[in-house]
Task: inverse folding
């Protein structure tokens, strides 16, 4: 979980923009190899009281997860170095993140993916996704 | 809104260009050595990422067209389709069209996908159908199948409320919620979470919290399914929850709480009527989730908590029906095609910076050096000794800043060279000539602008080499050459310049034919035998090569004046080395950077101007040189050659009398020597070029400005523009070769 100091700062940053009752900035980690998708997602999520950390592949995502508290992982599937499903499997193996909500945001349909491999997925969004929808799902998947 | 959207678009275009390059390289590579897994993945990913990104920024047509390419690559990747030249050609052409679509979109005049290519791509797929292949491309989702109404949901929900629109999620915004009932409605919910919900990152406690926020909630856990303690897996869920909820919130809100649970859990929601009877509602979330697979829905009721997760699928949302409107609502009406712009620099993993800002930084760094130089003069003042050390440090640091900043403008020439395998492949395809392309020294770094602008001249030379210089395989074999022709591109340093060579092992220049042609065109006096440099310079003369001569003389000379002018504009030069029967090499020699210029500081009518040294072939003193009029134009005789002269004073309309001893800068314009008369030569300078502001564009004769050591601003004079501007250019007399007869050579 977040250290006291970091939490204080993030809360402060949240300021009056926040509407939720017990809000406290949550961190969403977004992995996608496309810079424009990363940018788009960060922009869409900026309307929520969340901090978005964007990375371009699964390895980078794991690095972030190892030393940063995260509340939600939003990941693409096709990525270099470590793809989304590989990342998912690795996350479920991390003692600190075994129960992390993981949303997939990919242009693939879940039916294209072996059920075994997608077992740990919390929710699946197919690109292109509407901003409202993305926000709704992210809000929903974030631990309260 | 639109500015944010533009930012995404801009970013997308940049990214798309990079992906298109790796797609192209990948396809070429695929043809060369088929079947390398990692490499195939990368190529596939280029198409896949492009598709996804295009869809996300609302460019549905591009996403859809890309999908056709991606689908073929997917087949190849999964081994269901072999690779042959025809497939690669089709994919490459599709890539090119895609690139054109992206550029057209970037230029705000979108073009539609090519139906022909779409059909050809589909045809490729048709040849190798795969059972698992998707019938429809993802970015163009079939209008979501009416959310497979599972249970008799809608009807059951009827009593008082308007039925919520079943296709709610297809609307842009969430539908306004129907007016709440005056009194809280009571619901009875039964929830049997899937055994692995925890492992899917779902927090049941959070879900219960959320229900409590909706209204008064009671929770009862049925522990009947909990196994004996020793068999308990603490990470599994065994409990069945009975929940009552009194809320004014509409049923969809309740549904939504269970969004992620719907997949592998059993949930029933019923409304408690006034009479205490339970009216079943539809399962949760079914209205708000996209098209889940109907079979799954049908069997939902049967999924018992203890069953294995064979059918486990997380909740899904599929794209809206109109991706193009989804994000931004922009319409992309088909518009006339625009040609894709030329060389796109190849990307590398670096920070992107705005090119304009970088240029500004280069300019500032240059100014810093100038300011420092001025400060250095302080050292001469008595009493400044204590500051000497600091001044020297300042000088050192500011020079380092300038050099480092200049270095930022440098990019490896590979950004340019990497385009050519494709160019050569296409040319080889068309001409039936086998070509082996070698690339050497692609890591050599050059000014970004030079790399960008060298594309066309190089393509020109390569095309010439393939079309005309290289022989057909049979002819080569007959000459004892290897069957395949070779083209070598190389880059390397030569002193403070970079040399770029385009070399072939074809026929070589045919001196006889060039001379004959030169005589026919009146460029070479009949009966003379020009020396080799003159022969070579002939092929760069505008109009030297005409279409009918192309095939005659190995095609050398086709628009070579254009090549030469382009290189000159970059302050470089072209030279040619050729051995008959062995081959020809064109060599560009270019400055490392365009930001700095070696110049000659000249003065005319009291103004100081910098003339790029590269434009000056020679300086001679006008004093004592006999001037003459040729066809009514002023000329001077320089070493026996009558050279047209332009007076800068006249051109500027300067008042006053020219000094008795003017200087003449000899430059070359359209292959001809021309003198430009200035008042005085002040010396050599190294200047940082600053571009002229917006308002000063169109001042053709000045190519920029620079700050001189004394802090004054000086304009940079473009001699070739000066010459074209002067009236002489319009009625330029042919150079009169006066060899011998009027040899008043100056010295």
Result:
């Amino acid at each position: 979980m977040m250290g006291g100091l970091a939490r204080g700062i993030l809360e402060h940053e949240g300021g009056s923009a926040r509407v939720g009752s017990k809000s406290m900035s949550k961190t969403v980690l977004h992995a996608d190899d496309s810079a424009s998708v990363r940018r788009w997602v960060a922009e869409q999520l900026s309307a929520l009281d969340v901090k978005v950390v964007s990375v371009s592949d699964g390895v980078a995502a794991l690095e972030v997860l190892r030393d940063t508290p995260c509340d939600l992982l939003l990941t693409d599937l096709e990525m270099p170095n470590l793809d989304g499903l590989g990342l998912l499997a690795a996350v479920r193996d991390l003692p600190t993140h075994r129960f992390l909500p993981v949303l997939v945001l990919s242009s693939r349909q879940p039916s294209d993916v072996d059920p075994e491999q997608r077992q740990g997925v919390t929710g699946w969004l197919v690109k292109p996704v509407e901003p409202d929808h993305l926000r709704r799902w992210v809000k929903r998947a974030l631990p309260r | 809104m639109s500015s944010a959207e533009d930012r995404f678009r801009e970013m997308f275009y940049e990214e798309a260009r990079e992906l298109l390059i790796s797609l192209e390289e990948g396809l070429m590579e695929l043809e060369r050595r088929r079947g390398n897994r990692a490499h195939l993945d990368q190529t596939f990913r280029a198409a896949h990422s492009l598709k996804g990104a295009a869809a996300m920024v609302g460019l549905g047509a591009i996403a859809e067209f890309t999908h056709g390419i991606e689908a073929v690559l997917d087949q190849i990747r999964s081994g269901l389709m072999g690779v042959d030249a025809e497939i690669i050609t089709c994919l490459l052409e599709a890539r090119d069209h895609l690139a054109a679509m992206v550029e057209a979109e970037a230029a705000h005049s979108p073009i539609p996908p090519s139906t022909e290519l779409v059909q050809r791509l589909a045809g490729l797929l048709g040849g190798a159908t795969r059972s698992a292949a998707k019938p429809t491309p993802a970015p163009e989702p079939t209008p979501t199948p009416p959310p497979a109404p599972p249970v008799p949901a809608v009807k059951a929900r009827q009593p008082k409320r308007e039925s919520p629109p079943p296709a709610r999620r297809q609307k842009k915004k969430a539908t306004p919620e129907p007016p709440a009932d005056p009194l809280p409605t009571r619901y009875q919910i039964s929830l049997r979470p899937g055994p692995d919900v925890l492992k899917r990152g779902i927090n049941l406690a959070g879900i219960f919290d959320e229900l409590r926020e909706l209204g008064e909630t009671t929770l009862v856990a049925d522990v009947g399914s909990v196994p004996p303690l020793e068999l308990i897996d603490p990470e599994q869920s065994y409990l069945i929850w009975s929940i009552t909820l009194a809320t004014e919130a509409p049923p969809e809100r309740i549904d939504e709480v269970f969004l992620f649970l719907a997949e592998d859990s059993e949930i029933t929601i019923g409304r408690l009527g006034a009479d205490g009877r339970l009216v079943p509602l539809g399962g949760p979330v079914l209205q708000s989730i996209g098209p889940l697979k109907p079979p799954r829905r049908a069997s939902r009721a049967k999924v018992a908590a203890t069953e294995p997760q064979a059918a486990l699928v997380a909740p899904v949302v599929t794209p809206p029906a109109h991706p193009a409107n989804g994000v931004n609502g922009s319409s992309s009406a088909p518009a006339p095609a625009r040609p894709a712009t030329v060389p796109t620099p190849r990307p590398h993993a670096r920070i992107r910076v705005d090119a304009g800002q970088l240029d500004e930084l280069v300019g500032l760094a240059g100014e810093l050096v100038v300011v420092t130089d001025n400060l250095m003069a302080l050292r001469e003042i008595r009493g400044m000794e204590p500051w000497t050390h600091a001044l020297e440090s300042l000088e050192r640091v500011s020079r380092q800043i300038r050099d480092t900043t200049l270095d930022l403008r440098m990019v490896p020439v590979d950004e340019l060279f990497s385009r050519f395998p494709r160019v050569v492949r296409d040319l080889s395809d068309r001409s039936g000539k086998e070509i082996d392309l070698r690339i050497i020294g692609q890591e050599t770094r050059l000014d970004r602008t030079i790399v960008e602008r060298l594309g066309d001249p190089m393509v020109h030379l390569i095309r010439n080499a393939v079309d005309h210089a290289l022989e057909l395989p049979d002819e080569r074999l007959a000459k004892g050459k290897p069957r395949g022709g070779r083209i070598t591109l190389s880059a390397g340093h030569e002193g403070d310049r970079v040399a770029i060579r385009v070399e072939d092992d074809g026929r070589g220049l045919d001196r006889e034919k060039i001379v004959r042609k030169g005589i026919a065109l009146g460029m070479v006096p009949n009966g003379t035998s020009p020396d080799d440099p003159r022969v070579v310079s002939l092929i760069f003369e505008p109009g030297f090569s005409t279409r009918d001569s192309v095939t005659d003389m190995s095609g050398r000379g086709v628009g070579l004046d254009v090549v030469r002018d382009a290189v000159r504009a970059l302050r470089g030069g072209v030279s040619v080395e050729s051995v008959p029967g062995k081959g020809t090499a064109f060599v560009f020699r270019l400055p490392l950077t365009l930001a700095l210029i070696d110049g000659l500081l000249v003065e005319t009518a009291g103004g100081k101007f910098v003339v790029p040294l590269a434009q000056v072939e020679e300086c001679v003193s006008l004093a004592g040189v006999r001037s003459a009029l040729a066809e009514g134009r002023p000329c001077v005789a320089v070493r026996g050659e009558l050279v047209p002269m332009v007076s800068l004073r006249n051109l500027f309309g300067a008042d006053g009398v020219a000094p008795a001893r003017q200087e003449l800068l000899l430059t070359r314009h359209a292959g001809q020597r021309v003198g430009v008369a200035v008042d005085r030569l002040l010396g050599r300078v190294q200047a940082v070029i600053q571009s002229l502001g917006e308002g000063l564009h169109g001042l053709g004769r000045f190519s920029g400005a620079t700050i001189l050591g004394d802090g004054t601003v000086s304009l940079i004079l473009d001699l070739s523009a000066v010459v074209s501007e002067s009236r002489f250019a319009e009625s330029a007399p042919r150079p009169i070769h006066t060899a011998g007869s009027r040899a008043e050579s100056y010295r």
User: Anything to note?
Assistant: Chain A touches chain B through 51 residues (CB under 8 Å). The longest strand of chain A covers residues 26-31. The helical segments of chain A are 4-14, 35-45, 58-67, 84-93, 131-141.
